[in-house]
Each structure stands twice: as C-alpha cells, then as structure tokens.
Amino acid sequence: MRWVRNLQQVCWNNTSKVYGTEIGPRNWLYGMFDLDGRNESKNAAMSHWRGFKHHVPNEPNLTRDFLVKLWESDWKEKEILRKRRKSVRRYSGRRKMSSGEHVFDQPPVSQAITGYLAPTSPEEAKIAPLLARSNLLITRDIEWANLVFGFEQENRYAIVDVCYPNAPVGFIREQSNVLIRQFLRTRRPFVAYITDALGNELFRVRRPFWWITSSIYAEVDGKEIGVVHQRWHLWRRIYDLYLGNKQFAVVENPGFWNWTFTLKDIDGNVLAQIDRDWRGFGFEIFTDAGQYVIRFGSSDPSSKTGLAQKVEDLEVVRPLTLSERAVTVALAVSLDNDYFSRHGGWGLPLFVATE
C-alpha cells in the first residue's frame, strides 16, 4: 500500500499545468462544483486523469492498465492480511485444542536450561524447548472410528505443561499402515512424530513389530539417541532404558492395577515417574483415551522458572538429561500401546480384537 501514498503525493504535487492551466489544490477542489452547486467531481476527476498522462513532465508513463494492475495487487494484499487476522482470532479464541490443531505461541520452559539440562549436542538443543519442564501431561485423543466401528486409527496425543494448562507445548502423531493396524493391532510397527506447538518436528519414536517383548527407539534427525526394551515377566511390567549402549534406568512395576511406573537408577534411587491417570468409568471402559503424567522432578528448587516455582515436584536424586527425557517420553508411548490399548473392537463384530 506504499504505492497508494506515493501516487497520492504525485497527484497532489502535479495538479498544476493541466491542459496549460495553473490549478492549485484549492482551485482544483472548487472546480469540482459548477455555479449551481452541483457535484462535478466525476468529470473533474476524469479530466484530471486524462491530462495527467500527457502533461506531467519527468514522470513515469502511468497507463490505465498499469493502474489496474496496482489496484489488483493492493486488493490481493488486503485479502491475505484479512485472512491472516481471521485465522489468528480463530486460534486465539479457541479454548479446546486437540493434537491436530496447532497454536502460534510456544509456552515458556518451566526449568532453567542449565546444569544437567544444558544441551551437550545439537540434538539436545533441538528438544530442549519441549523437555525442559518439570511435569508433562500426555493425553490421547478419542478414536471415534475405533469406538463405533472397531476400526483401528493412528494414535494422537497432546502434550501439556501443567504449569501452562491453557495451551499444549507439543503433539505426538503416529504414522502406520492402515491394513497392518487392523491385523496386528497393538503389535503393529509404527513411527510417532513428536512436534512442538507450532508443528515443528523435534524427535520421533520408532516401534518395530514385536511378538513376545516390545522395544521402542528415540531418534533425533535420524540419529538414534536411546531405546527402551521390555523384559518378559508373567505379571510384572519391567522395562530397561538405555542411552546409547548404557543403561540409565529400570522400571519394575508390580503389575495388575498398579498404574505408577517409577524410573530408578542402579542403586534404586528415583529418577522420574510416569503415572497413568484414571479418567472416569466411561473413558476407561469404552475408549483408549488414556492420560499420562510424566514427573521429571527437580533436585534443585532454584532451577524452576515462572509458574513452576509454585508446583511441588517429585523429589529425585538427579534430574534426567534432555536425551534421557526423550527416552522417557518414548516409554510413555510404549506403555500406552502395551497395556492400555485393549479396547479396539467394541464396534461391529467383524473387527472384534483378540487381545
């Protein structure tokens, strides 16, 4: 719209010498009306523009086609700005958000990125905005096709920092083959992409097909940073967590109705905790929409920032590094598929699950 102001300035400065007559701004305004007071602005404007092309010296040749193109360009620019403002208002006014919808603002981190959380590699620097937090709430979306027809869908999750509950800090979305999902169900291979609130991929978790025990890998930019291996037991739920080739934690859950999975080091000290929340009778019986709280905790209260200073954290012997936290998120995804995705097939008898 800068060209509009420039064009107006040109018109104002060149109102003289039209058809050889000196016409100042005031005289030109008076010329819009005849002696009877009737408006002659239309004729005046037409005469002015017709003379503008031929009688303004040292100015570009402004043809009618050129002005039409300028008008079209300005109109398109206004339409783009209008749609952009409309989309911003729509997203800012929406309270309920699902994992398929992205917000424009990434909530700030709730832990200082220093000490154990200081990035030691480009991969850790990439995942820091999502994982430099004391607590993460991961909620799985309701799969309506699975609920009504027993059709297995791709899993989707929203990640929320409990210090900033009004906006998600990230999303998890599975990608897998539609036919393999129907036949293999919870044993299917898949890749899940973890993104920030803006939809930018931070890292991914890869889970291959399994028969007896499952494994899930955490990767950043195609580089494997850690893995979680399930250990077979008749009733206990045991997982070994590795960073590279070195084990840094183990989970030994007693099984049955115990939904707390505590990460401990070799000495039995607490490092982090994953709790599977009870969402109500209807949610638990008819859907797979589970909710998980990852408590990374804090060993140093001074490391908290913002609203996190008012939240009581889990006491841990040491904070997990950013890479270890990415492996912990992978464990939460694996737990959801291993033990809490058993409701597929409540719909048509054709799709009844065997597990």
From TrEMBL:
<dbReference type="GO" id="GO:0005886">
    <property type="term" value="C:plasma membrane"/>
</dbReference>
<comment type="similarity">
    <text>Belongs to the phospholipid scramblase family.</text>
</comment>
<dbReference type="Pfam" id="PF03803">
    <property type="entry name" value="Scramblase"/>
</dbReference>
<dbReference type="GO" id="GO:0017128">
    <property type="term" value="F:phospholipid scramblase activity"/>
</dbReference>
<dbReference type="InterPro" id="IPR005552">
    <property type="entry name" value="Scramblase"/>
</dbReference>
<protein>
    <recommendedName>
        <fullName>Phospholipid scramblase</fullName>
    </recommendedName>
</protein>
<dbReference type="InterPro" id="IPR025659">
    <property type="entry name" value="Tubby-like_C"/>
</dbReference>
